[in-house]
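User: Modeling request: complex.
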Amino acid sequence: DGGITQSPKYLFRKEGQNVTLSCEQNLNHDAMYWYRQDPGQGLRLIYYSQIVNDFQKGDIAEGYSVSREKKESFPLTVTSAQKNPTAFYLCASSIAGTGKSPLHFGNGTRLTVT
Amino acid sequence: GQSLEQPSEVTAVEGAIVQINCTYQTSGFYGLSWYQQHDGGAPTFLSYNGLDGLEETGRFSSFLSRSDSYGYLLLQELQMKDSASYFCAVRVTGTALIFGKGTTLSVSS
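Assistant: Request completed. Predicted assembly structure:
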């Protein structure tokens, strides 16, 4: 079945450590996205990529970095510069360049930093 | 800035009809979408309005008025399984979506 896989489901890290969240899709979608979800805050866009080797900052990119070396993969690194990294992180993909193309989401990674 | 406003909570009983409103103020507009998210799960796509008017998909309908920067999601014949969070989202540029903060719908028997 086609879909988006995020791993791990739960991730625990100590403050000051960088951590990378995995996102893989086999939907052959060109566009991929990372959103952060906090209680009562909805989904906020961190980064998105419309083609391989290209990505754009979203509204809350500070403290995060991404890479898009392969069409199928869009890993997100939460760096020690991110002041409040504890959150639910959602990866999504879609057909690029189509206004009505829906986003397909993974099941998310819940990151806890102490 | 860009903002999407929707009510934080709505309650209803099984079999009823509920309307969730969304007003938006964004730098660009390429359509209004609605997503459903059950607690702790992945958001799933419900509907899209690119032009003014009503779109119907089974028990769910969505409406858009671009002149009023307003849309709504209408849920009919509510079922317990409809208890979830509902997000409106606007495509402002390229393919990225900006989401509202979500409306938590609680359906009781």
